[in-house]
What we know:
single chain, alpha+beta, Alpha-D-Glucose-1,6-Bisphosphate, Chain A, domain 4, Multidrug-efflux Transporter 1 Regulator Bmrr, Chain A, 5-stranded antiparallel sheet, 34% strand
Amino acid sequence: MKxxxxxxxxxxxxxxxWYLFLKPQDYRVSFKAKALPGTINQTLRAWxxxxxxxxxITFLDDGRFEQQxxxxxSVYRYTWNVTPxxxxxxxxxxxxxxxxxxxxxxxxLPFYDTDFETRxxxxxxxxxxFLIDHLDDFKIxxxxxxxxxxxxxxxxxxxxxxxxxxxxxxxxxxxxxxIIAENEIELNGPPLIEVLDWNEKTDSLSYxxxxxxxxxxxxxxxxxxxxxxxxxxxxxKAVYNGNYLTSDRxxxxxxxxxxxNDLEVDPKPVEVFFNNPNMGGDELMWKTDVYLPIKSSSE
Length: 299
């Protein structure tokens, strides 16, 4: 009996030591969200920008991402783990740690309803409402496999954060419009973006913003504009309806479709824009065709 009591005592001490000093979080909040992990990630980045005292989101090597928020004099670390359940639902687990009062929170949590616990729940409820509002702002329809067209283009190269993609487009609309008009170049379709590199960890893009044109001898040389051919290729296609600021949400839908259908894709989307944002109107009526190239057997 004495040995059993000692063993139980050791186990209890070890468990208490783990709980107070080694457990990675003070508190966990879990919920399900009707969105893909990539959409949740990008929505979190937008929400993070409007939170007072927020620092940039950090993408961890294991696929989780960290966020730090300041409440009064305390810094809370939120570690987000988002896993897909199916193509329209994800499991969200958020581990929360008060970097300044961690041990005291762990002592109080089993016995009291603490301000830390209440604030953590309310903060995540606020994010979930922000996410739900965002999901109402767009619609994605995955079409499936379709050939990406071929065309000659007048283009401007850009490097931006993913959320700044649309601002890079707007900056170059007038430049390309003036060159097209001055040289009486015939258009061959609506404007498009050709992504050259997409780094999800750094949230960065390099891409070409292009006007499809009919090749002509009158093409004007310009230090920022170049001409190239976009070659046709097999791809999977989605139609995105919504503000072009967030058309990348269709990229994640196409990646999920590719995984579900065992298709090996090149994560370099092409977006074709059919509406002029300057004209306003109902954003859910704005249309973007989004293509994700399928890798050939030789690639």
